[in-house]
Structure formats: C-alpha cells, structure tokens
Design a protein that fits this description.
The structure holds two protein chains of two kinds. Chain A is built from 15 helices and eleven strands. Chain A is an alpha+beta fold. The longest helix of chain A is centred in the middle third of the chain and has 18 residues, at 143-160. Chain A starts with 34 loop residues before the first strand and ends with a strand. By secondary structure, chain B is an alpha+beta fold. Chain B is built from 15 helices and eleven strands. Chain B has a six-stranded mixed β-sheet, sandwiched between helices. Chain B has a five-stranded mixed β-sheet with strand order 7-11-8-10-9, sandwiched between helices. The longest helix of chain B has 20 residues, at 113-132. Classes of the chains: A alpha+beta, B alpha+beta. The interface between A and B is large, with 84 and 90 residues.
C-alpha cells in the first residue's frame, strides 16, 4: 500500500491562499415576475412559465386550515380524505387515475390554509385536471373511508407518542399558544373519536366547494393555460362567500420551565426553547432572520459551532422563527444526550447572553450575509422555487417589497441593530424551556 | 437527455462536466469509492464517522465550512454501504473556492484529535437519535444480520454498535484516508453554470498534482445463495406488532434489478398499489404497508414491512401477504398496471433531474457503476420490462427459501 507522509504539502502552489470570491452580498437578486389571470368566477391564478424539464406543479390553496375548524382535527381530516372518494369514483379509482399518469396529488393542512398539490408531466395535464375538478366539487366522506382513516391514524399516534421529539413539538406549542388556539392544538385519540363524517362533509362544503381558493402553477406551461384552467375551474362556486371572521385569543401557560419523562429508558432529551415573536409584517422580522442565522439558523451558526462542533452534545441544533401568519415564535430545537441535556440548555442561554452583550464582528457578519444571499440565490433557481417565494408573499398579503426589503436588510443591517434585537428578544426569562426524555 | 463530458487526469481522477446555463449555481460533487461494505467487521460505522472527519480541517485550510459559506455556498455529504459522496453548491462565480477546499481535503486532512473526539460524540448522538431512541429503530440491525450471513451488507452504515465508533483511533483515520481517499478512487462531477474548459483547467490546477494513490481493489466475501427460510421473533417496547419480510434480489447492474424495482412499485407504490388496497383498505389487517428495496450496488434486499392493526394475529397478517405474492407468481399483471408503474418511473426521473445537484450526483453514481452515460438509458431499461418478466422474477424472488421474516411483537399486547 502506498503511504504518503501525513505532513506532505504540495509546493507547486500555495494552497493556504483562498481563491478570490465575489461576495454574494453584492449580488443583484431579482424575483422573476409571475403572470396573473383571473378565472370567470374570480379565482386568481398565478403562473410562472420556466424550466427545461416538461414538469408542472399546481397548487390549489384554500382558506381551510385549522383556524376555521370548530372541532379539533376537522380541518386536517377533511384535507387528508380529499382523495378518498367522489360521487363517481372510489378512493382506489381516484388514486389509480393519478398514478397511471405518473402524477402525485398531495394534500397539506396548515393553520390558515390547506392545499391540494399536483405534480405531473405537462403532457398529461389535461387528463388530470377533470379529476381535480371532480374532487373539488363532488367529494364524498363515507363512513367506511373515515373509519379506516381514524383507526390507522389513532394507531400511528400511539407509535408517535413514544418519541420524545414528537411530544416536545406538541407541548412547546401548547405552552406558547394554549390548547384551544389553532397553533397550540394537537391530535388526540379523543379528538379522532369525536369526529363524524358528516362534519367533514359540511366543512368541505363550506371551505372547499364554496371556499376561497387561489391557484399557483409553475413549470413549462402548455400554451393556452389560462383558457384550460378557466374551462375546468372557472365555473366552480368558489370565492362567492365571505370567510367567517374568527378570532382565537392566545392562552399561554404561566409556568415557563418543564421537565418531562416520557420514556424512562430514553437515552436522549428533546429540548425546545421558545418565545413569542411578532409575525412577518413586523418591522423587526427581516432583521430577526439575520440574527437567527447567526444564532442557530445554519451549519456555521453559534449554536451549531458550540454545541455540536465543539462539545459534541448533539447531532444537530437549530433555531428558527415559526412560519405562522398571525403570531410567530422564536424556537431553539435539538435532541441531545440525556446526560448533557441540562448542559445544552445552559449553553443556549450563554449564546443568547453573548449576542446581547457583545457586538458581532464584521467578519462573522459578512459570512452570515454572504451565506444568506448564496442560499437565496439557490432558492430562486427553477420555476418551483420562484413560485414558492411568490406564494409566501401572496398568501400572506404582502407584496414584492417584502422580498427586496429582506435583501436590503441582509446587506445593510448593522452589528448594533442585531445587538439591540438580541436584547429585545433573546432574553432567557422570556423563553419557555422544555426537556422531554 | 443529460449532456456531459468526461476526462481522466493523469493521476487517475475522473472528471465529469455537465453544463447548464439556466442556473446561477455551480455544483461540485466528489464521490469516493468506499462505503460501509469496505469496513472491518470489528470497526463498523467507520466510513461514516470518517465522512464527519472530512469537515474537521485539511492540511492547509483549518476550517472547511467557513470559506465555503463566505463564498455563499452550502454543502453536505452522505455515506452508503457502497460509497461516500460529498457535494457543495455555490454561486457559479465562486466555483474555484470549492476546488480549493475539496482538493486540499484530498491532499491530506489535518487529522485533528479534537475533531475526532468531538465527531465520535456527534456520531454517537446520531446513532442514538435514529436507531436507539426510536420505536422500531433496531429493525434494520436485526434484519441485515438475519438476511446476510457473509456479505458486509450485514451491517448498516451507522455501524453495528456504539463501541465501534467510540473506539475509533486517529491511526485508523489516517490509514483509511490514505487507502481510500486518493484520486484513483474518486469521481469529480462539476455541473451548473460552468464551462467545460474552465472546469478542466481548474481540475488540473487543483487536483492534477495530487499523488494518485493505489487503486483500491475490492474483494468482498460473496453471500451464499440462501437455502432455507429464516425467521426471527423479537419483543420490544413498542405499541404495535410489526412484520418485516426480506428477500434477496439482484445487483444494481443486472437487468433483473429493474424488474424487482417495478415489482416493489406494483406492490406498494401508492394509493392504488396492491398491498395497500388489499391489506390496509379492504382486509384492514395493517395500518400501513410498504414494499421497497435497498437499491445497493451489490445484490440487495426487497422488503415488505407493515404495522398490524391491533388485535390482528401475526399469522393472519403474514398469510394475507402470501396471498398477494401468490397472485404475483401465478397470474400475469395487467398491461395497464405495468404501464402505470412505468409512467410513474418516467415522471419520477423527470422530477429528480430538475435539480442540478441531483444531476451531478446521479452522473457520479452511474460513473461509479461503470459509465455515467447509463443515466440516459435508465428509462429504456424500465420500459423493456414485460409482464412475463414480472411473473418470472416474482416466482424466483418470493421463494420461501429466499425469505427472511422478522416478527416484531409489542410487549404491551397480550
């Protein structure tokens, strides 16, 4: 076996000198515009026509999240069962149709919105749209389908309840928002048992069939896409009825610190620290994204460098701002060794303290700026990515100045501003603190 | 059709370039021909631990991540049983930064004791998070040991046990590096908004002078053909009984691999697949049921796994699976059903190929298999599969003597 001395250095060039780079912070990033058209019934369609592969992504976004339910799990269950039968086709036939054309029809339920998403090859679009239309107009929530759904989900829940991270995610939201708030509510065996298929049918009728819908299409669009969409969705009874105005008061818990033993044999603790943060329309939001990156938002962050790369307490630690429309929270999340869980919490507070007490140096700040801009550049690559940016702006009632303001903030926010922000938000006494073993 | 050009530097490093001017990004993907299957049975998990150490600084550059992040880039790596792959994506303007960082790691690591000490702990936490502190987390340890008596697919990339990782020494790290992390054992793929001539120039400049090393010639023990059914019963602290059945299939480059892949799609590829429709929806025996295969380069496993509905007996659940397999063995599937899974495969490939990172990764993997050009003939191989192939291979694969069954009981029931 050839074996080179380990101190061997190649002398042809000086490898210690880094190649020159263009600072990503100097990039002039633009958000490619969308085309917009309005269907006969007033439904707005936002379209991005780009890309080289013959693939499409379509989203039907409804205001049908759990914000609008009057019973726990009603919104999620309705959304989940959208593919399980219409007055003409049973679940098998529906699935077989989408699968035959190599397409994927997925559903997602969030807090404010719930979506139906179709991924397909452009050449099959016209085979698929009539069946999406059928789902949006003639879905049936049968006893049979509901019972299977209920049974499998209750038993899955039993498995999930064995996992410390699953428990921790539920509890931290409950502490922040209260059990009754849509952001703090979570699934339970009782909640599944309390639901009736007729309630799902009624929710469907109000929030899908007669609901408020916005459509997003991205990819290599077939010609005449506006007319095609109008022919399938322009006559549906959407966007006629005003959404109910529903307020959900926050009901935060008083006690801030929790230690829970879910599994006495557990070898890790799921750690969550969380504190309120105003939503994305607040003037601090963009700056907070920069501070968050510095704190725990990427691999080179303070939390990751200290707690993983220096101490080896965890496989990964992250901080993030929750993506809620009304009220956000700043969360630190990790799974750490059981014996070092308390030490991990202490280290998180030390990192907060340092951000409050010391100005970040220009080198590290430039690193964060460049990394954020490089990431943003990659997030603008391809039609689906560009559409994801627009979707966030449109659904949250923002405009493109949100995007450009974000870029300006990455470029210009100062170390002093970040320190002020840390003093305002990263204060340990404001944080809920939870370890689930 | 994915266009690319291939070059071989004089030190044996293979360089593939794929130009795509539609993206502002560049991807540098470096694949090393070493995986968990090349480990000593007493030092398992090492290839993966080593992957972590590749980020602990190289001989001339103390930190890997920071300069890349400063250049607006992002990186990651993964280890499989067959190979180890490193990739970074960065703005195309800053491509050379990736060459600088990757080539210095290939010249030599810094071999820092501190990095080894920390990453041993990090990997132990990764082990706990995914395989210990998780219901059913030990299934694959048990199944692999049941199904493989000889071949190193007997263990997972994370390793057999924590102690193997805890015992890793810096001498092992150095030995492993100079044996495997040499130009002759590596494939460099550069893709995105780059020019082939520019890439070749940078490759010569940064990698061209690195000592070639010796070609690593693999001589793995061959798994003997399984002669009788194997069964294992386990009781664990989980809420639901579960059933796992695995059968040996074919190496990656065998045409029958594609047949086996389509069989998994017919059985469980979605809401209209056979096992889901019959066993979850109609007979209500399982809460979930999945069929997949390990996708490895050497002969892998095809597995059916599911969690039983409470109250259902293991024998009844297993018998119902056998009924479905018997149908596969004795009746030709419909042309339409076969066409469905081919169509799904076509669109899956199209979606995967959207991202330049995936394309770079795939080119490297196909080059490892013998020829990057295979990437463009893959779909045809699926389309060549006939309903007769599906029936014939079902008969061979789902032979009782080829089966490995793990009965995973909840200690909370009964």
């Amino acid at each position: 076996m050839a074996r080179w001395p380990t101190d061997r250095k190649i002398n042809i060039m000086n490898r210690t000198i880094a190649p020159k780079i263009t600072d990503a912070v100097d990039f002039d990033l633009r958000l490619e515009p969308y085309q917009k058209f309005v269907l006969d019934n007033g439904v707005e369609v936002f379209a991005i026509d780009a890309g080289s592969e013959e693939v499409l992504q379509l989203d039907w976004v409804f205001n049908a999240g759990n914000w609008y339910e009057d019973k726990n799990l009603l919104a999620a269950s309705t959304n989940n069962l959208l593919k399980n039968g219409t007055s003409k086709k049973n679940a098998f036939t529906l699935n077989e149709h989408f699968e035959y054309f190599g397409s994927y029809l997925n559903r997602h339920c969030y807090h404010e919105t719930a979506t139906l998403t179709l991924h397909c090859l452009a050449k099959h679009l016209q085979e698929l749209l009539p069946v999406v239309q059928e789902i949006l107009t003639e879905s049936v929530f049968s006893d049979e389908e509901f019972l299977t759904y209920k049974q499998t989900n209750k038993q899955r829940l039993e498995v999930s309840l064995k996992k410390c991270d699953f428990i921790a995610n539920r509890l931290i939201d409950e502490y922040l928002f209260g059990t009754k708030h849509p952001y703090g509510r979570y699934s339970s065996f009782e909640a599944f048992d309390n639901l009736e298929p007729a309630e799902l049918q009624a929710f469907y009728k109000q929030y899908y069939l007669h609901g408020k819908c916005t459509i997003f299409i991205a990819g290599k669009l077939p010609s005449g896409i506006a007319a095609i969409m109008n022919s399938y969705f322009g006559a549906l009874p959407l966007n006629k009825t005003a959404l109910p105005k529903i307020e959900h008061p926050l009901q935060p818990f008083d006690e801030k610190k929790y230690r829970i033993i879910n599994d006495p044999e557990g070898v890790q603790g799921a750690i969550r620290l969380a504190s309120y943060f105003p939503g994305r329309k607040h003037p601090d939001f963009a700056k907070a994204q920069v501070l968050n990156n510095l704190f725990g938002g990427y691999f080179g962050s303070r939390l990751m460098s200290n707690i993983r790369e220096d101490k080896g307490y965890t496989y990964g630690i992250h901080s993030y701002l929750q993506n809620h429309a009304q009220q956000s929270a700043w969360v630190v999340s990790t799974e750490a060794g059981r014996k070092v869980s308390e030490a991990t919490v202490e280290e998180v507070y030390k990192e907060m303290l340092e951000l409050r007490e010391e100005l970040v140096d220009e080198e590290e700040l430039l690193l964060v700026r460049n990394h954020m801009m490089g990431t943003l550049l990659s997030e603008l690559d391809g039609p689906f990515h560009v559409m994801a940016k627009w979707k966030n702006i449109i659904i949250n009632d923002l405009d493109e100045s949100y995007f450009y303001n974000y870029i300006q903030t990455i470029k210009n926010v100062t170390a002093e501003e970040l320190q002020e922000l840390a003093k305002k938000y990263l204060a340990p006494e404001k944080f809920y603190e939870l370890i689930v073993i | 059709m994915i266009q690319y050009e291939k070059f071989i530097l004089h030190n044996g490093l293979r360089v593939l370039v794929h130009e795509d001017a539609s993206t502002p990004m560049a991807v540098v993907n470096l694949l090393y021909d070493v995986g968990a299957k090349d480990e000593d049975p007493d030092k398992t998990g090492f290839a993966h631990l080593f992957e972590h150490l590749m980020f602990g600084g190289s001989v001339n550059i103390p930190l890997y991540d920071e300069p890349l992040q400063m250049a607006g880039g992002e990186n990651n790596a993964y280890t499989t049983n067959d190979f180890t792959n490193y990739y970074c994506q960065l703005p195309a303007e800053n491509l050379e930064t990736a060459f600088w960082l990757e080539s210095d790691r290939m010249v030599s690591l810094a071999f820092s004791e501190k990095s080894l000490d920390v990453q041993r702990k990090v990997v132990c936490e990764e082990f706990k998070e995914h395989y210990i502190n998780k219901p059913y987390g030990d299934v694959w340890f048990k199944m692999r040991e049941l199904a493989y008596t000889t071949h190193p697919y007997r263990w997972q990339t994370i390793g057999k046990e924590l102690s193997h990782i805890e015992n890793a020494r810096i001498e092992d790290v150095k030995h492993f590096f100079f044996k495997h992390y040499r130009p002759v054992n590596a494939i460099l793929t550069v893709a995105g908004n780059v020019k082939t001539s520019q890439v070749l120039e940078m490759a010569e400049k940064w990698f061209g002078e690195i000592e070639p090393g010796e070609k690593y010639v693999r001589n793995l023990p061959i798994e003997p053909v399984q002669q009788e059914a194997r069964k294992l019963t386990v009781k664990a602290n989980v809420p639901l009984d579960a059933l796992y059945k695995s059968w040996h299939i074919y190496p990656r480059m065998d045409q029958r691999y594609y047949v086996a892949d389509l069989i998994t799609e017919i059985l469980s590829g979605g809401g209209s697949s056979r096992l889901y429709q019959s066993l979850v929806k109609e007979k209500k025996l399982f809460n979930n049921i999945d069929c997949s295969h390990s996708g490895t380069n050497d002969a892998g496993l095809l597995t059916i796994e599911g969690k039983l509905v409470k109250g259902v007996k293991m024998e009844d659940a297993e018998a119902a699976i056998e009924v479905e397999l018997e149908l596969m063995k004795t009746q030709l599937v419909d042309q339409k059903e076969l066409q469905k899974v081919k169509n799904k495969t076509e669109s899956m490939i199209a979606f995967e190929d959207m991202g330049v990172m995936n394309r770079a990764n795939s080119l490297a993997i196909y080059e490892l298999l013998g020829d990057a050009g295979l990437m463009n003939t893959e779909l045809q191989k699926y389309n060549d599969v006939t309903v007769q192939d599906i029936m014939r291979e079902s008969q061979i694969i789902f032979d009782e003597n080829n089966s490995n069954t793990l009965y995973y009981y909840s200690n909370q029931s009964a």
